[in-house]
Amino acid sequence: GLLQTEEYARTMFTVWRPRRREDEIEQMVAARMARHKLYERKPAPTLSFVIEESVLERPFGGQGVLRGQLEHMLRVTENPHVEIQVMPTRVVDHAGADGPFTMMTPEGGEQVAYVESQANGRVITERESVRGFAVRYGILRAQALSPAESVRHIEKLLQGDL
After folding, report:
1. Interacting residues of 109 by C-beta distance below 8 A, sequence separation 6+
2. What gap in Å lies between CA 140 and CA 93, rounded to an integer?
3. Nearest in space to 133 (alpha carbons), one of 83, 92, 90, 99
4. pTM, whole model, 2 decimals?
5. Facing residues of 124 across strands?
6. Band of the pLDDT at 162, cuts 50, 70, 90?
7. SS3 at position 78
8. Disulfide engineering: 147 pairs with which of 81, 83, 129, 134, CB 3.0-4.6 Å?
9. What is the spatial distance between Cα 118 and Cα 72, in angstroms, rounded to a whole number?
10. For residue range 91-126, what is the model confidence (pLDDT) as tens digits?
């Protein structure tokens, strides 16, 4: 959600099944957009994302929404504290095959992992489990395109027929 535009987030919540009421969707969009305040923190947190290539090509909400989303991601990469890497679809040995996860290290705290599936999320604090996620994330970053290659890939998608 930290990389999503408001329009893209609204689209994602709209396509969920079972369908949500409009007021629920608007509450979820507002909550997701409120997370963007993270970019304004001082000192700025370091944020690193590995995104599946297929996500960058799926036109949720139509071509205009996708174009806006990709343009937004390029703007985000201008922040020196943010790196985005694209995981090519062609990668056959994928360290994230078990699904998405988030690694977080709160200021002055221990690193934790967060996993989410459908509508349920769980924070993992047990050290050995967190260590396993950290190793997996390192491998994911090695398997993905570099940050510079990822920016070029997103630019190439925007130059194509979206």
Report:
1. none
2. 10
3. 99
4. 0.91
5. 113
6. low
7. coil
8. 83
9. 25
10. 999 999 989 999 999 888 999 999 988 778 999 999
Of 143, 87, 134, 144, the C-alpha closest to 113 is 134
Residues 6+ apart with CB under 8 A from 118: none
Classify residue 85 as exposed, middle or buried by CB count within 10 Å of its CB (0-12, 13-18, 19+): buried
DSSP one-letter code for 42: S
Task: Kindly state the tokens that stand for 100.
Answer: 């998405």
C-alpha to C-alpha distance for 104 and 123, rounded to whole angstroms: 10
Domain spans, the chain = 44-159
Residue 147, preceding bond cis, omega within 30 degrees?
Answer: no
Written as six digits, the tokens of 122 are: 């769980």
Measure the CA–CA gap between 152 and 161, rounded to whole angstroms: 16
Q: Is 123:42 a contact under the CB 8 Å cutoff?
A: no
Beta bridge partners, 52, equal 87
Q: Which helix (H) or strand (E) holds 121?
A: strand 120-124
pLDDT (0 to 100) of residue 142: 97
